[in-house]
Automatic annotation (TrEMBL):
Gene3D superfamilies hit by this protein: Trypsin-like serine proteases (2.40.10.10)
Signal peptide: none
InterPro entries: CLIP_Serine_Protease, Peptidase_S1_PA, Peptidase_S1_PA_chymotrypsin, Trypsin_dom
The name this protein goes by in its record: Serine protease snake
Keywords: Hydrolase, Protease
Organism this protein belongs to: Culex pipiens
Length: 368
């Protein structure tokens, strides 16, 4: 048993060099925040579970990535379970029990069942998600370039084997699963360490749409497993806040990419297809009733959401891309005393500068 053996000899194992920040003859100073595997909290607030209502067989190996208040990205292979389409998603995944019905499933038109190519799909939800401290969307990384930094891959694994930082012998097991974040390097095609099983899956080789990541260090076997459909992500600061940018959706790989590479579906090569399914001006839905208040003048206070009592400011529509996108999506929008002036919450009002091109570019503004 690899896990049991690792526990019995844990006091003999050396700490990773990235964690050791100081050393004397008698002791080491450790910075556990630099660990290659760590507990995940906010890193999971856009990961959703996929659910099949009234169906006896569950798929534990499928998750999705929330990217807006009504849209989830996932692997195409995870849209069905033995031919039965998914019916709901759990938002907040393990942190909440609230589920949302799926109103539409859009699979990449070139996906072939069982293939690792074009393995991507979109779920549209039947009701809009209300964001909170534990439910936030991920932003889509639209640039073809990947920053020269490590990326985070999300997984699950045993609490006990991943989190001891001690020099005494282990004396108790704690086998419960925990959410994990694994730090990966982005590997080139020539540096992508694939098992024979992974190579068989990639019968046409690595394509531009694939992202190969991993870490040369080894973990105890079976101590961490990736979550298919969860994002390979990059935490960045925008508008003085951290946002997680989804570069790809995890497909397959063992031990969370330690000792061998994991393969993911990059989002950037699929941006053109995603735009046709995500951007409001491509959608064809029945128009919602719009509200016009002739007493609201530009620059004056207004009510953005009567139900939740959210206040706003009457603003030119070009300065409020989030709400204008809602209008183009045929959602309800409150107009002021002009067809070009809408009620916009202050946090959505765009600052002076280049105008965002579309909702894929305005994510940090829309959800801050």
């Amino acid at each position: 048993n690899p896990v049991g053996c690792a526990f019995l000899r844990s006091y003999l194992r050396n700490q990773d060099t990235e964690v050791v920040v100081g050393e004397t003859n008698d002791a080491q100073t450790l910075d556990v925040s630099r660990a290659l595997v760590s507990y995940a909290s906010n890193e999971f607030n856009h990961v959703v579970g996929i659910y099949w209502q009234n169906y006896p067989y569950r798929r534990e190996n499928c998750t999705g990535t929330l990217i807006s208040d009504d849209t989830v990205l996932l692997l195409a292979e995870c849209t069905s379970n033995f031919g039965v389409a998914a019916t709901h998603v759990y938002i907040g995944w393990l942190l909440t029990t609230e589920n949302y019905p799926i109103s539409e499933t859009i699979i990449h038109p070139e996906y072939v069942e069982g293939s690792p190519y074009n393995n991507i799909a979109v779920l549209k939800l039947g009701k809009r998600v209300k964001f909170s401290t534990i439910v936030r969307p991920a932003c889509i990384w639209t640039s073809p370039e990947i920053p020269p930094s490590q990326v985070d891959v999300l997984g699950r694994g045993r609490q006990d084997i991943n989190f001891f930082v001690r020099d005494e012998q282990f004396d108790s097991f704690w086998p419960m699963d925990a959410n994990l974040t694994a730090r990966h390097n982005v590997n080139s095609v020539s540096n992508c360490s694939l098992t024979s099983e992974s190579r068989r899956k990639l019968n046409r080789g690595l394509a531009e749409e694939h992202l190969c990541t991993g870490n040369p260090n080894f973990l105890v076997p079976e101590s961490c497993r990736i979550l298919p459909g969860a994002p390979v992500q990059l935490p960045l600061v925008r508008n003085d806040r951290y946002f997680h940018y989804a570069l790809a959706l995890s497909q397959f790989g063992s031990n969370c990419g330690f000792g061998e590479s994991t393969i993911s579906t990059r989002l950037t090569p699929h941006i053109n297809w995603l735009q046709t399914t995500l951007l409001p001006n491509f959608r064809d839905e029945a128009a919602a009733v719009q509200y016009v208040n002739p007493d609201w003048a530009e620059g004056e206070p207004c009510t953005y959401d009567f139900e939740d009592e959210i206040e706003g400011v009457c603003t030119q529509y070009l300065k409020c891309p989030k709400v204008w996108n809602d209008f183009k999506a045929k959602r309800r929008v409150n107009f002021c005393n002009s067809a070009s002036v809408i009620c916009c919450p202050k946090r959505y009002i765009a600052q002076e500068g280049p105008k965002p091109r579309n909702v894929l570019d305005t994510c940090p503004t829309d959800f801050s």
